[in-house]
Amino acid sequence: MTGKMRKNMGFSLMPVAFLFLFEPSYSLIDPLPDFIGYFILCFALINLADINPKLMDAFKQFRIAVLVGVLRIVAVMAINLLFEKQERSVISLLLIFVFAFSDVVILIPGYKKMFEGFLYLGTYHNGSAVYETKKEGAANASEHMYALSVLFVVVKNVFWALPEFTTLAADDTYEFINVLRLFAAVIIIPVAIVWLVRIIKYFRAINKDADFVESLKTVYLEKIQNARDFFISRVVSIGLAIMTGAFILSLDFTVDSVNAISDIWLYIAAIVSALFLRRHTEKWKLLIIPSTLGIAAAVFCDLATNHFFSRHSPNDVIRNIEAYNSYYFMLFMYVAEAVIFIGLLLCAIPAIRDLFVSYTDMSGNIGSSDYKAMKRKFNCGSATVLSLGVIAALSGLYYVYSIPRTYKGLVFELSGIISHTLCIVFVFVTWYFIGYVKSAIKQHCKSSLY
User: Fold this and answer.
1) For site-directed labelling of 1, which of 87, 90, 107, 159 has its Cα 20 to 30 A away?
2) Which letter, b or e, does each residue of 343-363 get, where b requires 16 or more Cβ atoms within 10 Å of its Cβ?
3) Which residues contact 417 (CB under 8 A, 6 or more apart)?
4) Three-state SS for 273?
């Protein structure tokens, strides 16, 4: 994704992606998570997408599919956390229908663009495998694989969803849902296996088309020689997007007084962001330190919170020494994590500033009015983000402090609402600020790949 050459332009990796995509699902459970397959496919396509607009469109479609796949896993967690057993079947039906419809809407255009892109490249780069036909006038290999892929997507998602509609029946039909799922699997599996075998054979044939692959490599290397800024912009943008995701994960989603999305993921995302940015800012190491400490603090916070709420109620704090000690240990850990979170912010702002100064129009306009305006906007934005981050961290402590004191008045009762509101404001402002930096970096990128 940084201009590094993938083996055989990614064609060798593509069959691996489809190993994660062919198997049928069981309700919302996906034995081999589809999002991994789409992620691998995106990773394999990116070099080709850099030299062909249709493959870039396909890449964008499969990138959306990655997000949908992740949301599917989140949905499973949310159903188990938020709904009673008797409610889960109807909610599952709704989500299965939504995800099945999303797959059809996203994947069919994605496959269409992908195979069109292969045919386009085959036309101009002596590709024989993508145009292979068994007899003259018949559909070529790429057209045949597109038709088979559409059939697979439709069959897999229709027969995945249909058995779940028995949840709407008023009789005992739902008792036989597992039989219907088995029947659906009997239909899906043969189609899936045929699709998997054919698509692996298709990409193996392309991989053996040496003249085609070598021609694509030559064009790609010429492109990246003339588009250094583009690849820098891409990596920096991805790093900043992951950093935005890290701060979004700072939002607490509380279920039964426990944060359903641990802050561990916040700090892991911050580390991943730092690794993406390591070649573009010397401050990346500073992000690693508070993030590593934050993982440890988040683990202790989760353990302390689960320990306290699994054994005690907030009212026990003032009348039970064990509850008192457990609560104040939990509070202490939240104080430690709040300090680390503020430290992460203090390290993130200088790293973002490095990128802003180096890869935007500021780098060539020192002393100009535009330079001063951009500097002023960055300083105001970073100061706002830092201030709101400190306030959000303190509001989170205020909420934990208020847990055993809600009886003292409305100001303590509303602590949760206040804390969540301030956190949402912080996340929105941070998203806007980092988005501005990303836009400024992309604007500075003058190279065009096509």
Assistant:
1) 107
2) bbbebbbebbbbbbbebbebe
3) none
4) helix
Is residue 153 within 8 A of residue 102, CB to CB? The reply is no
Structure tokens at 110: 């994605």
**Residue-wise pLDDT tens digits, 186-235:** 888 899 999 999 999 999 999 888 888 888 888 888 877 766 677 778 78
Please enumerate, as own/partner, the contacts of 142-148 that have beta carbons within 8 Å and a separation of 24 or more: 142/115, 142/118, 142/202, 143/115, 143/119, 144/198, 145/115, 145/198, 145/199, 145/202, 146/111, 146/112, 146/115, 148/194, 148/195, 148/198, 148/199
Rounded CA separation 250/256 (Å)? 18
pLDDT tens track for 272-314 = 999 989 888 888 888 999 999 999 999 999 898 888 888 888 8
425: which 2 tokens? 């404001």
**Separation in Å, CA 215 to CA 44, 52, 128, 227, 316:** 17, 14, 12, 19, 73
Question: Do residues 152 and 195 lie in contact, with contact meaning Cβ atoms separated by under 8 Å?
Answer: yes
**DSSP codes of every residue in 335-376:** HHHHHHHHHHHHHHHHHHHHHHHHHSGGGG-TTSHHHHHHHH
- Copy the structure tokens of residue 234: 């891409």
Q: What is the pTM of this model?
A: 0.69
What count of residues does the chain have? 450
**Alpha-carbon gap, residue 290 to 196, rounded angstroms:** 45
50 phi and psi angles, rounded to 5 deg: -70, -15
Q: Distance between CA 409 and CA 405 in Å, rounded?
A: 8
Among residues 333, 332, 313, the alpha carbon closest in space to that of 323 is found at 313
Distance CA 159, CA 100 (A): 10
Whether the Cβ atoms of residue 174 and residue 199 lie closer than 8 Å to each other: no
334-283-370-365 Cα dihedral, nearest 10 degrees:
180
Q: How far lies 39's CA from each of 42, 105, 208, 283, in Å?
A: 5, 18, 24, 28
H helices, E strands: number in the chain: 14, 2
Half-sphere exposure of 239 (CA within 13 A, CB side): 26
Rounded Cα distance between 139 and 130, Å, is: 11
